[in-house]
Amino acid sequence: MVISFYFLCMPKVKVSHISSKSPEECFTKIQKLFENDKDIRKLDSNFTCDFDEDNLCGSADSKQFKAKMDISDHSEGAEVNLVITLPMHLALAKGMVKTMLTKKLEKYVG
Which domains, from first to last, does the chain contain? Predict the structure, then answer.
């Protein structure tokens, strides 16, 4: 029970982005972002990704963070939602992580 409470208290960064691209195109671009981007790899070079192309969602898991992604239809194209869970010792980096991810989404999915 204590472990569950610990994860509930961990800082979360939520980023949403509306793109004019199709959900499928956004999924492919974000998959490439997580697999190849040097800035994200700086956070933890040993993280692993698991993508579900059928449901347009995915996750990344590492010692430094956990990430969940889902992409849904939107009237303008696609809505991308990312939730990054950070350990307590990185709580002060929430703003930096959110800024970096927002810029990356704008660059990759427009």
Answer: 2-109 (3.30.530.20)
The maximal CA–CA distance of the chain, rounded, in angstroms, is 43
CB 16 within 8 A of CB 105: no
Q: What is the pLDDT of residue 55?
A: 92
Number of helices and strands (H, E) in the chain?
4, 5
Average pLDDT over residues 67-72: 92
> Residue 27 — very low, low, confident or very high, per pLDDT cuts 50/70/90?
very high
This prediction's pTM: 0.79
Question: How many residues are there in the chain?
Answer: 110
DSSP reduced 3-state for 68: strand
- Return the exposure string of 38-71: e unless at least 16 CB atoms fall within 10 Å of the residue's CB, then b: eebeebeeebeeebeeeebbbbbeeeebbbbbbb
Q: Give alpha helix (H) positions in 10-93.
A: 23-36, 38-43
Pairing relationship of beta strands 77-85 and 66-74 according to DSSP bridges = antiparallel
Mean of the pLDDT values across residues 39-61? Answer: 86
